[in-house]
Design brief:
homodimer, about 190 residues, mainly alpha, Arc Repressor Mutant, subunit A, 2 domains, two-stranded antiparallel sheet, DNA-binding, DNA-binding (chains A, B), DNA binding (chains A, B)
DNA sequence: AAAAAATGTGACCATACGGTAACAAATATA
DNA sequence: TATATTTGTTACCGTATGGTCACATTTTTT
């Protein structure tokens, strides 16, 4: 039998990503990852230091929201802010891994996940630079972004929210438009 | 030993509520409920038909958002709508059971939870009568309510969202105000 | 009082979880 | 080539899960 630690680590890491994407936070576990990787679970402890170390590796390597950083640098004017919103909501709905981390934060916060959430939130904070002032636009903007996250996560197991079809592209476009329109209205005050 | 089916059923049901409140959806299980009730788990199957039946009982008995129905009946004018929002957000942040059901909907949707979510969502739909039109106010309102739910759920394990303090009463008042202000602005269009 | 029905318990099953230790095999070093 | 060292597997442990079955005890009915 051929032995290759680097390749084995890669198999483990990729399996972790796969399970988080496919099964969500509840599916992530030592046994499941080892089985998916086709490898003994002992090696997860030896090479990564168990689940905690594995999540730390993920956190450090994870380039969350990288696609938004370029826009972020120049989102001082209204047009760029609107572009940022459009790209941000698109990124959120396409990046399943990001969705599952966000879902995870609603479930637990223990010794294993601590580092992951810390790195992730730091990255979010860097990307979504929030207005310092506690004005209504700031709060409204936060609520809408939060709502976007909520409905995105909800859409995994629910087809509708009350009468709103969460599977329809038009719905998400309506949400986008509503955010943009609200920003405009507040800016004209 | 005294035998009293009605009392036993009550013990089981109350234990279920207690665990859902204290441990969240992940803590809800046959063994945990039986242990908390100090009763053999066989009885959960015999009296309720297992977890599925237990959740069905909960769904049918559950008077979700009952405090909002009175306001709902007359929220045609702006003042009542604003009052409805204020009472609704308050109800949401105070009712842990409601929070955990909402959290649950983000985690799974299987044969056991199906009926619970169905009843719960029907009640939500009755309370939050959403505007039929796909206008921006409707979408903006939905996003903000969704955001409110999201931050409420997030606050269980996270003290902040980026720089916003989720433990501060002022934060939630800011959110309330932002919703009210947005509604006003859209109404004046 | 005797028989039947309802109520409740404990034991057991298969499965899965995280975690560890003993051992085999391959690779690197001497 | 002989010896360490690294890599990997298997087996096992304690605990927990959902679910069922046989049995004992209490309550109801005849």
């Amino acid at each position: 039998m051929k032995k290759d630690r680097a390749a084995t680590e890669e198999k483990i890491y990729k399996s972790f990503l796969y399970i988080l994407e496919e099964k969500g936070p509840q599916g992530v576990g030592i046994n499941a990852i080892a089985k998916e990787a086709g490898v003994s679970k002992t090696l997860i402890y030896r090479y990564f230091g168990g689940m905690k170390g594995l999540l730390l590796s993920f956190a450090q390597k994870g380039d969350f929201f990288k696609s938004l950083l370029a826009i972020d640098a120049q989102k001082d004017n209204l047009e760029n802010l609107k572009n940022f919103v459009k790209e941000g909501t698109k990124e959120l709905r396409e990046n399943v891994l990001t969705q599952e981390i966000l879902r995870w934060q609603l479930l637990e916060n223990n010794d294993d996940t601590k580092s992951l959430f810390k790195y992730f939130n730091a990255q979010v904070g860097k990307t979504f630079t929030i207005n310092e002032k506690d004005d209504s636009l700031n709060s409204a903007f936060q609520l809408m972004i939060g709502g976007y996250v909520y409905f995105t996560l909800l859409s995994k197991f629910n087809k509708t929210f009350i009468t709103t079809d969460l599977t329809s592209e038009a719905t998400w476009k309506n949400y986008d438009d509503a955010i943009l329109k609200t920003i405009e209205m507040f800016s004209k005050l």
